[in-house]
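TA notes, week 10

Several of you asked for a full example with nothing omitted. So below is the full record: structure tokens for the whole chain, then the designed sequence directly under it. When grading your own attempts, check the secondary structure regions first.
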């Protein structure tokens, strides 16, 4: 008898119920998310007393052009110098090269990476992450290694998972006890761990929740489109405590709290597109929903969203410009996560992306497929009409993001993966490609994924950035790739880019990140991806065994 997604889900639900009866809510949370195992002795080298990356071309993340050859010197977990060692197409100037020894420390552990012909970038910062959990991706190791193999060294979880679990994993990552990006915890409004039981339904409770998040190790807030007095209390308290904020201004609340409303109250980041178009309506105050609209029917929810594209003031109009200029005056970050919706304008293309077969867990694939229970699996009867509406919407969305960037606004590259055929790690690179589609130069794209994302995190704290740029004094969070990402962002995918070799006449795969360096620890990115592939194979083998045993029972 075939083991189905629903049968597996039912079994997991039954198991969770039994555990809940035995050991209460704490045990239930533990069944939903398995923390990463301790970092093994062969997982990452360093940090070293001195690490020198030799002869690289550096893309520093600020928008400056590539420069090389450069030697990058790292001591412990910080960059101490970036040194020019010559000019292209000429031998390295050995007199300018930093040495292997450290004065006063003859026993120093020194390591070199020959990066001749390679490119070094800052580690990527993704501001919209979720780890997974039952039934999608129960083991955090799977998701962490997908992120790290794609150069993501810092992530903002909105949220990563259950609150207490997130704070514990955040600490383990900070101590490099696990293979994982740095974790900035932005829990969703009202969520909390043991000891938190208030509803955020009054300004007083809103302020109490913000203080609770701060006291328990959270970094900021993930908000919805709350009614004005609640939103004001949340943002005011967060600002007073040096905490960040991001908001999904959802359709159930956007009529009373759109992007400009929230920005005026102090919101730091608008994530997705919600609230942006609603701030620019021309002849409407709310979206003109069809009579059959039901928000809980997700094809309604996602199928109606793009039909705002022609309801707003035109690009370049006084209203369009005034809106963007006001957002800029409040220094709001736009964090679009376009990749989260990529299947909406071409479901088949996203469904058959080249990485799914090797790197997508069967349980995650089950979650993706159209059904009415799983969030984002809304292709109940997805037609060309929906895809055309989304393509029209995307064009306007691209214009809005590009114009805001050109005004000096901060736009970032984030993913919101784990839904809608959108795979962790790979989706962050997809988002970078979509920004180039929107009109960003690749150097602007990389800045969005590095320095601008870091600035978004650090601005509320009042501290200067500690990562996001290849610069002396900053943390050693870096990406090394053997192809030029300015020429082709596709070389950042774990699956690389396909290219015809004119010498052999064969199509070959090039690229894929070679090393991800976090906190001065050097990880083999391709090995991390191989570990993910093995986890996928293990789950496939387990399913085959279960199916075979079921058939024998019959």
């Amino acid at each position: 008898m075939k083991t189905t997604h629903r049968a597996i889900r039912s079994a997991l639900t039954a198991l969770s119920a039994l555990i809940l009866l035995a050991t209460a809510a704490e045990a239930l949370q533990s069944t939903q998310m398995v923390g990463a195992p301790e970092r093994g002795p062969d997982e990452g080298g360093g940090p070293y007393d001195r690490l020198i990356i030799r002869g690289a071309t550096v893309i520093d993340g600020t928008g400056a052009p590539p420069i090389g050859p450069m030697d990058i010197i790292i001591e412990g977990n910080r960059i101490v110098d970036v040194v020019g060692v010559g000019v292209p197409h000429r031998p390295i100037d050995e007199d300018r090269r930093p040495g292997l020894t450290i004065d006063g420390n003859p026993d120093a552990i020194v390591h070199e990476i020959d990066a001749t012909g390679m490119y070094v970038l800052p580690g990527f910062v993704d501001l919209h992450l979720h780890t997974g959990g039952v039934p999608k991706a129960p083991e955090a190791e799977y998701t962490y290694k997908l992120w790290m193999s794609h150069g993501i060294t810092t992530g903002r979880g909105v949220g990563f998972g259950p609150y207490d679990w997130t704070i514990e994993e955040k600490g383990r990552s900070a101590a490099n006890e696990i293979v994982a990006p740095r974790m900035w915890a932005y829990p969703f409004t009202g969520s909390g761990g043991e000891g938190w039981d208030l509803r955020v339904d009054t300004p007083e409770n809103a302020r109490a929740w913000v203080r609770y998040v701060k006291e328990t190790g959270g970094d900021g807030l993930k908000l919805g489109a709350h009614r004005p007095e609640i939103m004001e209390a949340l943002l005011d308290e967060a600002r007073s405590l040096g905490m960040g904020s991001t908001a999904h201004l959802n359709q159930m609340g956007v009529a009373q709290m759109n992007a400009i409303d929230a920005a005026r109250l102090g919101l730091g980041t608008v994530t997705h597109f919600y609230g942006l178009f609603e701030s620019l309506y021309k002849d409407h105050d709310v979206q003109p929903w069809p009579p059959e609209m039901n928000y809980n029917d997700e094809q309604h929810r996602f199928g109606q969203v793009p039909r705002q594209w022609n309801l707003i003031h035109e690009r370049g109009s006084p209203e369009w410009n005034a809106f963007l200029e006001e957002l800029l005056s409040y220094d709001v970050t736009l964090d679009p996560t376009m990749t989260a919706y990529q299947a909406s304008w071409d479901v088949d293309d996203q469904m058959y992306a080249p990485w799914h077969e090797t790197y997508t867990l069967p349980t995650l694939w089950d979650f993706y497929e159209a059904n009415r229970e799983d969030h984002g699996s809304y292709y109940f009867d997805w037609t060309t009409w929906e895809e055309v509406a989304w393509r029209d919407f995307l064009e306007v969305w691209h214009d809005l993001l590009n114009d805001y960037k050109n005004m000096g606004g901060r736009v970032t590259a984030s993913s919101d993966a784990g839904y809608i055929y959108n795979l962790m790690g790979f989706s962050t690179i997809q988002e970078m490609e979509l920004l180039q589609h929107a009109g960003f130069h690749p150097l602007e794209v990389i800045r969005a994924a590095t320095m601008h994302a870091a600035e978004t995190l650090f601005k509320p704290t009042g501290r200067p950035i500690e990562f996001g740029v290849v610069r002396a004094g900053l943390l050693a969070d870096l990406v090394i790739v053997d192809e030029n990402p300015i020429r082709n962002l596709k070389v950042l995918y774990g699956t690389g880019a396909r290219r015809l070799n004119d010498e052999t006449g064969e199509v070959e795969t090039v690229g894929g990140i070679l090393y991800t360096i976090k906190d001065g620890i050097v990880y083999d990115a391709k090995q991390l991806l191989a570990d993910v592939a093995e986890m996928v194979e293990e789950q496939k083998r387990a399913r085959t065994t279960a199916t075979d045993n079921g058939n024998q029972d019959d």
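Confidence is low (pLDDT under 50) at residues 1-31. Use that as a sanity check on your answer.
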